């Protein structure tokens, strides 16, 4: 597990917060159903970066075969106490997924790419295990976000790593800025082997449809911004939501 943030659930307690995880799940499942349809029962699902398993467990209410994978053994041990027939947890590395080629119909990659030492290898593995008719739900933070969500500091992800490390130390938020975010252009390069269906603007335009009302509850001024402005400022949107399919399929 060289190069990883080990025991991430102890670094960021939000991944174990049931309320925030349920909000993310409601948005996630709304997008998945919009793309695929309401009946998800025949899909074999893998969540990469399952952590405490809250979202994985919720997925198992809608799908009959769900696997949660993470390197955080303590978090998965806690998650495994909530056992269900349709749910399994695996301690494993996202850069070397322990599944056969084309074995998974739905991969969940929810704010994971910036936490692994090699994002290209992560998506090589996701491509490998994804079935030809399968798809991946991806939520991805943007390097050009004004407000960095992990450490709650403005412009942190814009800075060169040495400067970002110093910024964290000076503000008392940490000693080392581990995360490696990409811009929208960088994400498109990362995902070059996939067809990318970008749901980001749809979610902003129709938040109720995608269970994303909290976006504007937390930022009421944003609700008054014309839709055309979001399209112009697409490259600065903090988080993108994509559905990915294999190009050759």
Main features:
33% helix; alpha/beta; globular; 10 helices; 21% strand; 249 residues; seven-stranded mixed β-sheet
Cα radius of gyration in angstroms? 18 Å
Structural class: alpha/beta
Mean pLDDT score? 89
**What form results from the Cα inertia axes?**
globular
> What sequence of helices (H) and strands (E) makes up the elements?
HHEHEHEEHEEEHHEHHHE
Written description of the protein model:
By secondary structure, the protein is α/β, with parallel strands linked by helices. Helix content is 33%, strand content 21%. It is built from ten helices and nine strands. The chain has helices spanning 8-11, 18-36, 54-59, 73-79, 119-129, 161-171, 184-190, 200-205, 214-218, 227-232, and strands spanning 44-48, 65-70, 87-91, 104-110, 130-141, 147-148, 153-154, 194-198, 239-246. The strands form two sheets. It has a seven-stranded mixed β-sheet with strand order 3-2-1-4-5-9-8. A two-stranded antiparallel sheet has the order 6-7. The longest helix is centred in the N-terminal third of the chain and has 19 residues, at 18-36. The radius of gyration is 18 Å and the shape is globular.
């Amino acid at each position: 597990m060289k190069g990883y943030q080990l025991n991430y659930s102890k670094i960021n307690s939000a991944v174990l917060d049931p309320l925030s995880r349920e909000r993310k799940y409601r948005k996630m499942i709304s997008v998945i159903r919009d793309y695929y349809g309401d009946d998800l029962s025949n899909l074999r699902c893998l969540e990469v970066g399952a952590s405490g398993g809250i979202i994985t467990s919720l997925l198992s209410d809608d799908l009959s075969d769900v696997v949660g994978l993470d390197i955080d053994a303590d978090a998965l041990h806690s998650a495994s106490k909530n056992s269900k027939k349709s749910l399994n947890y695996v301690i494993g590395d996202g850069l070397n997924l322990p599944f056969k080629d084309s074995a998974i119909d739905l991969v969940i990659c929810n704010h994971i790419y910036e936490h692994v030492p090699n994002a290209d290898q992560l998506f090589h593995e996701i491509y490998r295990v994804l079935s030809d008719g399968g798809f991946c739900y991806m939520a991805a933070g943007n390097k050009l976000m004004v407000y960095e969500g992990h450490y709650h500091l403005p412009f942190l992800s814009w800075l060169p790593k040495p400067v970002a490390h110093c910024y964290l130390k000076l503000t008392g938020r940490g000693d080392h800025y581990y995360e490696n975010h990409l811009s929208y252009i960088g994400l498109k390069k990362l995902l070059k082997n996939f067809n990318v269906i970008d749901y980001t603007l749809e979610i902003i335009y129709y938040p109720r449809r995608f269970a994303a009302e909290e976006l504007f509850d937390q930022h009421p001024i944003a609700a008054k911004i014309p839709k055309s402005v979001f399209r112009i400022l697409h490259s600065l949107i903090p988080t993108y939501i994509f559905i990915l399919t294999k190009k050759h399929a």
